[in-house]
């Protein structure tokens, strides 16, 4: 029975996705009659018949990826002509109307007419003998999938188009139909196996192989249904048809730059990678952008990013906020950009744990007020810095850094403490050096001077480096607790919230006390939970006995 094959579609086009089959079995067709609607990476094309006859079997389905030269129908009552028909561009999107889909000479190496008897989906040795059935193409940019279910068994007789496998790709779960008829002699795969396109999956006996890419039927899984539907709607919005669009296509309204020479599939890939297609330099004719151009641009961005950018992080493209109202964009300040990079790296590279506790600062507050007078005002922060400096000597694992490149822990014999300062440019962390050798009054003076220089943009690079531990005090603003992010390469940070009067039960009676919430975040690679609890408890007990602190040392 003669087979009608997919003709040449145009320059450098080797395959396309079937969007609509325009005929059915039993239809009489004439040469030049449109039989398929096919979406390529350049346009949506009407594919005409290159022969007269009656449609027998339809060897493809909607959604199938079909290669040039692949059989699409069988014909009765007619024969195919040697020449390849030229697909018409009735559905070419606007930006592609100047692309000529003229036929090219058949070329076996570029997807031309296949050799009779050698279908890529079944390697038939002799008629009626044993052949291998291979996994057909599952979709554009899909190279492999995981077998979730085998729908047939040894001894079953296959029919063309019968579903034989369930395959899970990164986009959906697909039912894979058979591309040939015959008796299953051996199953070469198992459930859970990762199978590549073209890999043998069954051995069959009898019958002859048919189309290589009989369409896998999409069966979205619960976790991939939304993504698959989004991709479907997105691709619809890229195709500008002269015929009326269906309701689903009408409902999609994505911002598309039509003046950019890029195919729908290329645009979709750029969106999935979070890349502005307008920024990608095209290497094709007339500056046309290809999939390889997008991948090369993405690789260039990854290699040119600062080292503090999180390795392996995925930058997801933002939605078009202008759909819901007016928006404006402002460039990040250098401080904000550096903060974003640094904290993203810290958050993803450090396994954080945060320990919470409260400390009674009633007596500390009395002491603070007693030594503050006139122009000399001391906050609670210098007292906490002094206590933490002592705690770092008591618990040396908190005054360390983790070097994963050498699998070593770096312990520091000096005590430098950074203090987060809120400025109009963003968060800055100047560092107080050798605080263990300073008195509380000296710490207070140096902290006040450092904070003032930070707000006046006068801090030096040296003053921003060398920290061993960080303290972030938000008590002046408010809040009961928070989870501070460890300031890499340090391994711990102490957050201080606003103190408040609370009733505490002491010696059988409730007594109002001034309680201060503390939040200790630490690197769990180095610090265990018990160590974190001991550290913050030691700090709390030291703060609760302020008169044991040496104000002058």
How would you characterize the overall build of this protein?
This protein is of the alpha+beta class and about 550 residues long. The protein folds into 4 domains: about 1-85, RNA polymerase II/Efflux pump adaptor protein, barrel-sandwich hybrid domain (OB fold (Dihydrolipoamide Acetyltransferase, E2P), Beta Barrel), CATH 2.40.50; about 90-230 and about 305-315, OB fold (Dihydrolipoamide Acetyltransferase, E2P) (Beta Barrel), CATH 2.40.50; about 255-300, E3-binding domain (Dihydrolipoamide Transferase, Irregular); about 350-550, Chloramphenicol acetyltransferase-like domain (Chloramphenicol Acetyltransferase), CATH 3.30.559. The protein is built from 9 helices and 30 strands. It has helices at about 225-240, 245-250, 265-270, 290-305, 335-350, 360-370, 380-395, 440-455, 530-545; strands at about 5, 15-20, 30, 35-40, 45-50, 55-60, 65, 70-75, 90, 120-125, 130-135, 145-150, 155-160, 165-170, 175, 180-185, 195, 200-205, 215-220, 350-360, 400-405, 410, 415-420, 420-425, 425-430, 430, 470-475, 490-495, 500-505, 510-525. The longest helix is centred in the middle third of the chain and has 16 residues, at about 335-350. It is elongated, with a radius of gyration of 35 Å. The N and C termini lie far apart (about 100 Å).
């Amino acid at each position: 029975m003669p087979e009608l094959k997919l003709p040449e579609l145009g320059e450098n086009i080797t395959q396309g996705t079937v969007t609509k089959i325009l005929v059915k079995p039993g239809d009489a067709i004439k040469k030049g009659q449109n039989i398929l609607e096919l979406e390529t990476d350049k346009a949506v094309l009407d594919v005409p018949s290159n022969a007269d006859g009656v449609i027998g079997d339809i060897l493809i389905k909607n959604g199938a990826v079909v290669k040039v030269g692949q059989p699409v129908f069988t014909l009765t009552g007619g024969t195919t002509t040697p020449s390849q028909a030229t697909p018409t561009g009735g559905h070419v999107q606007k930006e592609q109307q100047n692309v000529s889909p003229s036929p090219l000479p058949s070329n076996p190496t570029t997807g031309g007419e296949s050799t009779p008897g050698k279908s890529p989906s079944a390697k038939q040795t002799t008629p009626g003998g044993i052949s291998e059935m291979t996994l057909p193409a599952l979709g554009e940019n899909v190279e492999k999938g995981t077998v979730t279910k085998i729908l047939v068994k040894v001894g079953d007789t296959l029919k063309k188009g019968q579903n034989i496998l369930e395959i899970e790709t990164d986009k959906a779960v697909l039912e894979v139909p058979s591309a040939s008829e015959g008796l299953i002699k051996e199953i070469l795969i198992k459930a859970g196996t990762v199978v590549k396109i073209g890999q043998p999956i069954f051995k069959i006996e009898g019958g002859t192989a048919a189309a290589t890419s009989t369409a896998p039927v999409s069966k979205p899984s619960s976790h991939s249904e939304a993504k698959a539907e989004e991709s479907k709607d997105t691709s619809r919005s890229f195709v500008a048809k002269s015929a009326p669009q269906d309701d689903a296509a009408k409902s999609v309204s994505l911002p598309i730059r039509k003046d950019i020479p890029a195919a729908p599939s290329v645009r979709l890939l750029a969106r999935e990678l979070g890349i502005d297609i307008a920024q990608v330099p095209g290497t094709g004719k007339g500056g046309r952008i290809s999939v390889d151009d997008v991948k090369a641009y993405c690789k260039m961005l990854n290699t040119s990013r600062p080292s503090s950018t999180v390795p392996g992080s995925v930058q997801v493209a933002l939605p078009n906020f202008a759909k819901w109202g007016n928006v404006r964009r402002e460039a990040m300040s250098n401080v904000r950009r550096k903060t974003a990079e640094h904290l993203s790296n810290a958050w993803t590279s450090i396994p954080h744990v945060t320990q919470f506790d409260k400390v009674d600062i009633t007596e500390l507050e009395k002491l603070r007020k007693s030594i503050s007078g006139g122009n000399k005002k001391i906050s609670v922060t210098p007292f906490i810095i002094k206590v933490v400096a002592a705690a770092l000597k008591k618990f040396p694992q908190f005054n360390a850094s983790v070097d994963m490149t050498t699998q070593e822990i770096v312990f520091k014999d000096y005590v430098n403490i950074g203090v987060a300062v809120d400025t109009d440019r963003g968060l800055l962390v100047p560092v107080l050096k050798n605080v263990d050798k300073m008195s509380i009054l000296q710490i207070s003076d140096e902290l006040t001077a450092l904070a003032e220089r930070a707000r006046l943009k006068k801090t030096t690079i040296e003053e921003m480096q060398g920290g061993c531990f960080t303290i972030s005090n938000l008590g002046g603003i408010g809040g009961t607790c928070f989870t501070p992010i460890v300031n890499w390469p340090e391994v711990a940070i102490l957050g201080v919230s606003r103190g408040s009067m609370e009733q505490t039960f002491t010696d059988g009676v409730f007594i109002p006390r001034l309680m201060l919430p503390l939040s200790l975040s630490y690197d769990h690679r180095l610090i265990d939970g018990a160590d974190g609890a001991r550290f913050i408890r030691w700090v709390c007990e030291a703060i609760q006995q302020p008169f044991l602190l040496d104000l002058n040392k």
